[in-house]
UniProtKB/TrEMBL annotation:
Molecular-function GO term, any one: carbohydrate binding
Hydrolase recorded as keyword: yes
Record keywords, A-Z: Glycosidase, Hydrolase
Domain Glycosyl hydrolases family 2 sugar binding: 14-177
Protein name listed in UniProt: Beta-glucuronidase
Domain of life: Bacteria
Organism per entry: Agromyces tardus
One GO BP annotation of this record: carbohydrate metabolic process
Residue ranges annotated for the Glycoside hydrolase family 2 immunoglobulin-like beta-sandwich domain, each copy included: 179-270
NCBIfam families in UniProt: PRK10150.1
Length: 593
């Protein structure tokens, strides 16, 4: 799905700001049918959970409603009028006045509706968006809903971050011509120093297509005609990690020789390859340094914020990071575009987290359930997972920063049924995008020799907590155990390994001269221990610390005001580990340059 934009033939209105807000109520069975009778207003984009002091809103399970008036620009007569929702967690429905125009399941990817027949240029309409935060065994991510003795509905879920809900990303009103560029897929290759840009364009109706590629100065470097076109760029400047270079591709739809639509797309010319145990970008071995991150800030929850976007990337540059994983869901498109422009490498992950019921049982002491079964994670969840993959690839396939698809985080890959669940999803991902490697993130409870799916993937990502959840406080034993396991993965598969999570919970200001868990010194010592092992295992091609910053989780004694494994606090203050990482990673960056 192409992101709406302003061009010579298109216009765009951002509908962010304060909207009327209300929880679903049996007293108002059709909240879209009239102006919401509510004193509450909620900002878009933002999660709604932390905005208000009423615990009923924070703990609400079910539908919530946003509403505002929107005026269609009078100059849009003759164009199609589109409403686009960048994300509605986890299910969304859109009404124009009292007409339902769109519904979508999946909380982190966009959806849109053509509302041309329901609005009039120059006139206002009432826009109502409902958001449902419920998770079940048929959703991605999964969850269950319990009914308490007092009748309250309580959401339980299996992932270790707070189930923020609402309109966390922007809502747009867009115009586009009746005949328009509907989709485009760009794949780049190299022949010596010549860049090959292959462009496949889909138009909404019968029209000719013209593609023009310009360099960063605006000079035309190639043109081609046709829906399937190839542009050759002599002496191409490559998109490189840490040194982004973007060309601009302009696509024009023509009817009888007249341009009826124009759509522009940044293009980074680069190649990706897995060769043996190496991960290559532009034919050169690449070593990932960086983090698993979260879209998480105080008050906003998962609401996108450009100020935090800029500051987080500044901190990643300061610390020497060259990459991150979108743990554990697709991030806002603005994040991906920023990574494109600034040369940050991205492992793009689906929201398939929590597909491991045994892990939750092990943490809580509850009876362990089989993960892969008709009554737990079954055919319906697999179908939802496949749809997420289709939508993720459709949204992010043209970002040069995205170098790999991660289809799941910490599944029960050692349980019977895992292979039957994942094999068709891996095949689907490769069919959707043959140009990128496919990975998954392996959980510590499924080590080499017990995991049933790792051979299906191009790269094996590992989350390991030696020195924290095991060998707590005993870093000598942790170091031996970690190296033994990594050597086993290296020997068994001969594929690139990336440590996508490692670290220790740390309270800022807690200090100790001993290996004392929760102290800042211990967090640094754990990371140092991992790094010694990383440097001894050739197949290890990357390290991404868990986590970039502290983040909110569900309530309970297992987490105290959230997960504290960040090397930055939730408000982005560095812990001691951040300075230690900066020393290591900036030295590695300097050597690479």
């Amino acid at each position: 799905m192409l992101k709406p934009q302003t061009s010579a033939t298109r216009e765009l209105v951002r509908l962010d700001g304060l909207w009327r807000f209300a929880l679903d109520s049996a007293d108002v069975p059709e909240p879209w049918a009239a102006p919401l009778d509510t004193p509450l207003e909620a900002p878009v984009p933002a999660s709604y959970n932390d905005l208000f002091t009423d615990p009923r809103i924070r703990e609400h399970v079910g539908w919530a409603w946003y509403q505002r008036s929107v005026r269609v620009p009078r100059g849009w007569a003759g164009d199609r009028v589109i409403v686009r929702v960048d994300a509605a967690t986890h299910e969304g429905v859109v009404y124009v006045d009292d007409v339902k125009v769109a519904e979508h399941v999946g909380g982190y990817l966009p959806f849109e509706a053509d509302i041309t027949e329901h609005v009039t240029p120059g006139a206002e309409f009432r826009l109502t968006i409902g958001v449902d935060n419920e998770l079940t065994m048929e959703t991605i991510p999964p969850g269950t809903i319990e009914v308490a003795a007092d009748g309250r509905r309580v959401q339980r879920y299996f992932h270790d971050f707070y189930n923020y809900a609402g309109l966390a990303r922007s809502v747009w009103l867009a115009s586009r011509p009746a005949v328009h560029v509907d989709d485009v897929t760009v794949v780049t290759e190299l022949e010596g120093t010549t860049g090959i840009v292959r462009v496949d364009t889909v138009v909404s109706a019968d029209a000719a297509v013209r593609a023009t590629l310009r360099d960063a100065s605006g000079t035309v470097v190639g043109t081609a005609d046709g829906a399937s076109a190839t542009i050759r760029v002599a002496d191409a400047t490559l998109w490189q990690p840490g040194a982004a270079y973007l060309y601009q591709l302009t696509l024009e739809a023509l009817v009888d020789g007249e341009v009826v639509d124009e759509y522009a797309l940044p293009v980074g010319i680069r190649t990706i390859e897995v060769r043996g145990a190496e991960f290559l970008i532009n034919g050169e071995p690449f070593y990932f340094t960086g983090f698993g991150k979260h879209e998480d800030t105080a008050v906003r929850g998962k609401g996108h914020d450009d100020a935090y976007l800029v500051h987080d990337f500044q901190l990643m540059d300061w610390i020497g990071a060259n990459s991150f994983r979108t743990a554990h869901y697709p991030y806002a498109e603005e994040v991906m575009e920023f990574a494109d422009r600034h040369g940050i490498v991205v492992i793009d992950e689906t929201p398939a987290v929590g597909l491991n019921l045994g892990l939750i049982g092990g943490i809580t002491g509850a009876p362990k359930l089989a993960t892969w079964s008709p009554g737990t994670i079954g055919d319906a969840a697999q179908a939802a997972h496949a749809q997420v993959l289709r939508e993720l690839v459709a949204r992010d396939k043209n970002h040069p920063s995205v170098v790999m698809w991660s289809i799941t985080n910490e599944p029960a890959s050692n349980e019977e049924g895992a292979r039957e669940y994942f094999e068709p999803l891996v095949q689907l991902t490769r069919e959707l995008d043959p140009s990128r490697p496919v990975t998954f993130v392996n959980v510590m409870m499924a080590p080499a020799g017990t995991d049933l799916v790792a051979d299906l993937f191009d790269v094996i990502c590992l989350n390991r907590y030696y020195g924290w959840y095991v060998n707590t406080g005993d870093l000598a034993a942790a170091e031996a155990g970690l190296e033994t396991e990594l050597r086993a993965w290296e020997s068994l598969y001969g594929k690139p390994l990336i440590m996508t999570e490692y670290g220790a919970d740390t309270m800022p200001g807690v200090h100790s001269v001993w290996d004392q868990p929760w102290s800042e010194e211990y967090q640094t010592a754990v990371l140092d221990m991992f790094h010694r092992v990383h440097d001894r295992v050739p197949a290890l091609v990357g390290e991404q610390v868990w986590n970039f910053a502290d983040f909110q989780t569900s309530a309970g004694i297992f987490r105290v005001d959230g997960n504290k494994k960040g090397v930055f606090t939730r408000d982005r203050k560095p812990k001691a580990a951040a300075h230690a990482l900066r020393t290591r990673w900036t030295a590695m960056r300097d050597r690479a340059s």
